[in-house]
Specification:
By secondary structure, this protein is an alpha+beta fold. The protein has four helices and four strands. A four-stranded mixed beta sheet has the order 2-1-3-4. The longest helix is centred in the first third of the chain and has 18 residues. The protein starts with 7 loop residues before the first helix and ends in a 17-residue tail after the last strand. 38% of the residues are buried.
Length: 128
Amino acid sequence: MAARRPDPAQTQAAVSAVAAWLHDDTQPEPPRADVAAAVRLTARTLAARAPGASVEVRIAPFVAVQCISGPKHTRGNPPNVVETDPRTWLRLATGLITVPDAVAGGALQLSGARAAEIADWLPVTNSE
């Protein structure tokens, strides 16, 4: 079953609520609920745009989604995993940073042969 696509306007509003923090690391972190909403909505947008279950994207502590068509993972540790923190995820999801740059900086961990395919599906929204 394909993931239901979040409302683009709701996703954009959630991202806009944390945009200053995404653009400027000297800004204080927004309220946890605002960060959580932006992370969950952008991750679910990714899952809806890239349906499948061959890659698991984990943004602790808020959400994990499966995406990208291919061999389905059902039990145990998934073979293709993308892991990052909420701010890095939101910067990726909005195009403020690229997957190669996040990996090079140590903020994004990719494991498995297909994990890097996540770059083909980003960004999912803009940062305005």
